[in-house]
């Protein structure tokens, strides 16, 4: 009979499992609603990030989104083909490109931002304002303690 080594607090294990389940639920519900926009979740994230930081370099956006610049290329291609973004050579470094929202892209990002607020209100509707603030505080503490380098808003 082999005994399992004690590797940590069972409360911590339950929290990890609950956090994973919470993320899957949040992701599933959000993606279902964002699908109504006709865009992938990755495209929505990129448009909203670009709306928050206009004229950003692809590399900076990739870092902010927690993906590689290479992963952004097909998403950017798709958004460019749809007339939502355009690539512009960065005047400070001609090897780099900045992404710019087109007029249509800016309008779409504004609508997506409204949809994002509606989705979040639906998902967190069971929590009081005080519970939402406490959850935000706990999640920020968790993210900071795990060494996430992203310091801006999610």
TrEMBL record:
Ligase found in the keyword field: no
Entry keyword annotation includes DNA-binding: yes
TM spans (from-to): none
UniProt entry keywords in alphabetical sequence: DNA-binding, Transcription, Transcription regulation
Domain spans labelled HTH marR-type: 12-144
SMART domains: HTH_MARR
Pfam families: MarR_2
PANTHER family (UniProt xref): TRANSCRIPTIONAL REGULATOR, MARR, TRANSCRIPTIONAL REPRESSOR OF EMRAB OPERON
Protein name: Winged helix-turn-helix transcriptional regulator
Organism: Plantactinospora alkalitolerans
